[in-house]
Amino acid sequence: MEISAKEMAKSAYEALADKKARDVKILDISEISPIADYFLVASGENPAKRSAMTDAVEEALGRLGCSGMRKEGDHRSTWILLDYKEIIVHIFSDEDREFYDLERVWRDAKILSPEELT
User: Whose CA is closest to 42, among 75, 89, 83, 108?
Assistant: First the structure.
């Protein structure tokens, strides 16, 4: 059974929310970029928190049968990227999130509420 990008994004969002990720944004980039359908952007205040968030997303998507195409960063990183082809999850420190400001860079994306993924 093929898992939709929307289901993947919903599962990743729930995993981040379960780990108390801060300010999780779901950006629908499907109409403006061929690289993915959704970006999820979240903040974690310390390395342990960001690592737990990463593990939770990997576990949740693994249960759906999704394997990550690429992972950039580790428990010491201030920006961890999980690329699942259809969705890309960005987990930032507060400082890096403010500096890179993906929400501004991708301002043409539609920001979705979690309810819009159901």
Answer: 89
- The string of pLDDT tens digits covering residues 33-68 is 999 999 999 999 999 999 999 999 999 999 999 977
Percentage of the chain beyond pLDDT 90 is 92
Which strands sit side by side in the sheet containing 87-92, from one edge to the other? 70-72, 79-83, 87-92, 38-43, 22-28, 110-112
Single pTM value for the model? 0.95
pLDDT tens by residue, 59-94: 999 999 997 789 999 888 999 999 999 999 999 999
- The vertex-6 CA angle with 25 and 64, nearest 5°, equals 110
The span from the CA of 74 to the CA of 97, in Å, is 16
Domains of the chain: 5-112 (3.30.460.10)
CB 78 within 8 A of CB 92: yes
